[in-house]
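Slide 14.
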Amino acid sequence: MAVNGVGHGHDAPAVTVTVVYHSVHGHTQVLAEHLADGARLVPGARVHLVGIRAEDVTAGRWHDAEVLALLERSDAIVFGCPTLMGSVSAVFKAFMEAAFTPFTTQAWKDKLAGAFTMSASQSGDKLVVLEQLAVFGAQMGMQWIGVGDMPGNNWSGGAREDVNRLGSWLGLMSQSHADQGPEHAGSRGDLITAERYGERIARLAQRWVNAVPYDTSRMTEHEARALSASLRETDDAPAVLTGA
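Slide 15: predicted structure.
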């Protein structure tokens, strides 16, 4: 088990958000880390990063009692893996199948859930992976949270750095070039979208669990385009733009 990145907010009721992911070459891990960074912005959020590793799979089966215990006490769980041949990665599928144990007791019922995925191709059939993860969450009785941002890079003034540049709402999509390492994972817009998504999930978890007041942030298409344009105008724009 690889667990790290626990963050503790102050002066707010506690809520636990766990990001559980599999990463082959490190690109999906970068996305997971940025999502966790966004969740840590929320007061009271305790955020865990859990890496599902190939070496934890034996004879096609994955099991880690400590990870399952952490997930059972989490208020929100975000699932992530690369899109490989139009499907979730084999390692992450082994983790999903191991969730049959909490499935039989509905241990994750009414926890909040979300998902993210990464591929080298612009499409790569990433939607199929998000659908697989959403069905998995539904079978576990979870409440699904999608991306809340308007689409980017869908007009002549758009760019790769736009927020939600791949226009995905079921979950977070990102794309990395196959010939570049994880230091170039995603685009700046993808990573900011990940942070905004993580913040959104943690804020909604606070509302769901602790009845913390929640003000819905809304943007027009024009405002969303202006936001993305502002990120291209300066290199020192904030890593996270609140109001996700």
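Speaker note: The first helix runs from residue 27 to 39.
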